[in-house]
Amino acid sequence: MPKYISLVKYTQKGIENIKESANRFEAFKQLCESMGAKVEGFYLTMGRYDLLVIVDAPDSETIAKIFLTTASKGAVSTETLQAFSEDEYRKIISELP
Question: Which of 21, 24, 25, 85 is the 20 to 30 Å CA partner of 9?
């Protein structure tokens, strides 16, 4: 399954209700599982972003649905990147013209 890394920022609403954040994350994990995805990693970060979340999902459409659903609740904004493993990276560059 493709792997996606999401850089997450709390919105004003999200930080005002920070104590609910753990419950929101549990709901996020359940949403992922209901859509055939799995949270592989979660980190609280310091700097430009507040959280980093790593998700395995069947495809880009699924991950878009997951993060659009999550962001629509108003507590976070996200920037999501598709990630390639070292093996995938080596395969990609070996096939370059």
Answer: 85
Q: What is the CATH number of the domain that holds 70?
A: 3.30.70.920
Rounded CA gap, 60 and 51, in Å? 20
Residue found by looking up tokens 């993060």 in the block: 67
Report yes or no: 6 and 78 within 8 Å, Cβ to Cβ: yes
Q: Which range marks the domain in which residue 29 is found? A: 3-94
Q: How far apart are CA 9 and CA 49, in angstroms?
A: 5
The tens digit of pLDDT for each residue in 17-57 reads 999 999 999 999 999 999 999 999 999 999 999 999 999 99
Split into its structural domains, the chain has a count of 1
Query: Rounded to whole angstroms, what are the CA distances from 88 to 1, 47, 62, 85, 92?
Result: 12, 29, 20, 5, 6
